[in-house]
Amino acid sequence: MASAQLADRAGWDCGHCRRTGLEKKRRCGFLPEGQRGEPRIVWGRKQVQSQECPKSFVTGESMALLEEFFVSTRLGIPSSLELRARTADAFLILREQMEREERDGTSSQP
Predict the structure, then answer these.
(1) How many other C-beta atoms lie within 10 A of the C-beta of residue 30?
(2) Coil, strand, or helix at residue 12?
(3) Which long-range contacts (CB under 8 A, 24 or more apart) does 28-34 make?
(4) Residues 13-26 pLDDT 10s
(5) Three state DSSP letters for 43-66
(6) pTM
């Protein structure tokens, strides 16, 4: 089977990716740096890109910030004075990206 077909079937599922030998091609962050090969873009969407598989790049903290952002968006974002600086920075980035997606008509409101 061609590697493009394997990549399509593996999606971004870590287990399937490892079983089909795609972790090096996708520069899995769970591999030691020396085993990932030369840096190159392995995922991208518009102006956002990653030189590492998004599944290993996104941390638990990233997911928690996303959840907090979407909950606060639904309930009303608290005053920026009530947020930690790291959270406020993440919210600004997420708001900008969400507005860009909405402007481009490529995403629906959660």
Answers:
(1) 12
(2) coil
(3) 28/52, 28/53, 28/55, 28/56, 29/53, 29/56, 29/57, 30/56
(4) 888 888 888 888 89
(5) EEECCEEECCCHHHHCCHHHHHHH
(6) 0.60
